[in-house]
Design goal:
Blueprint (H helix, E strand, L loop, with lengths): L13 E5 L6 H12 L2 E4 H14 L7 H7 L5 E6 L2 E6 L2 E2 L7 H11 L2 H17 L2 E5 L2 H5 L5 E6 L2 H14 L6 H17 L12 E4 L5 H19 L1
Parallel strand pairs: 1-6, 1-7, 2-6, 7-8
Antiparallel strand pairs: 3-4, 4-5
Helix pairs in contact: 1-9, 2-4, 7-8
Bound molecules: 2'-deoxycytidine-5'-monophosphate (DC).
């Protein structure tokens, strides 16, 4: 992994980026990681893969005990092909199917199960030990990587996030209703922030970045500058 000049850490550099859904975390984190030469880890994709695994086994996602019983066989691998993160579930590339509506619906239920969180958190810590990473999710700075060198909480107002999502759907030629998209985002926010385990909240030492008023390029630049400044100060 390319080591940036001046950042002479004896261990791998870990950057945690948390925030609500639709704040652009994944696309901003991916591009920031590319510019810094870090590996990007999308933990939401791992929860989605776990949800798909539960669905493939026709297990009720609310049945925490049954879900827990199949976790020892859960084999999720993140591979990097042409600079893109691909998600493999038991050897099969599931990068596309984990984005379907069914999986999106099942993921929050499965991700609320403590054993699932423990299992995926262990996998995420293992990746972080071996690579300079930017890892995005909901509980990275608070639970998974509490000692990350840089913690960022990336957010935007629900209205701006809904507007962006709505535009994205329309551009893909899909039917969409702004009010429904907004209600969906607010519902997901409520769920994420009120989960009994690992609720979404900024880590005490995280840097808040609000992208409501800035575009993608400005957001990426701000994230990259924030990481550089923080690492320069620690080097
Ligand atoms: O960011 P996303 O929509 O791809 O996340 C998919 C699901 O996983 C979503 O329900 C939130 C959950 N998640 C989580 O509980 N913890 C994480 N670190 C990342 C995602």
């Amino acid at each position: 992994m390319p080591q940036q000049k001046g950042w002479d850490f004896t261990h791998m550099i870990n950057v945690a980026i948390d925030g609500p859904s639709g704040a652009g975390k994944s696309s901003i984190s991916r591009e920031a990681a590319r510019r810094l030469g870090f590996v990007y880890v999308d933990t939401g994709a791992m929860y989605r893969a776990a949800a798909l695994y539960v669905m493939q086994h026709r297990i009720d996602p609310d049945d925490a005990e049954k879900v827990g019983s199949i976790l020892p066989m859960l084999d999720i691998e993140l591979k990097y092909e042409d600079g893109e993160q691909k998600v493999y579930l038991c050897g099969e590339n599931v990068s596309r199917v984990i984005r379907t509506r069914e999986v999106t619906r099942c993921a929050p239920i499965v991700s609320a199960i403590p054993k699932v969180r423990q299992c995926l958190s262990d996998m995420q810590q293992e990746i972080a030990r071996k690579n300079n990473i930017i890892m995005d999710g909901r509980d990275i700075g608070t639970v998974v990587l509490p000692h990350a060198e840089v913690k960022i909480f990336l957010t935007a107002s629900p209205e701006v996030r809904a507007q962006r999502r709505y535009k994205e759907l329309i551009e893909k030629g899909m039917e969409a209703d702004y009010e429904i998209v907004l209600a969906d985002i607010k519902e997901r926010d409520y769920f994420d922030t009120h989960k009994p385990i690992s609720p979404l909240r900024p880590a005490k030492d995280s840097i808040m970045i609000d992208t409501s008023e800035i575009d993608f390029e400005q957001s990426v630049q701000l994230v990259v500058d924030t990481i550089r400044n923080k690492l320069d100060a620690r080097a």
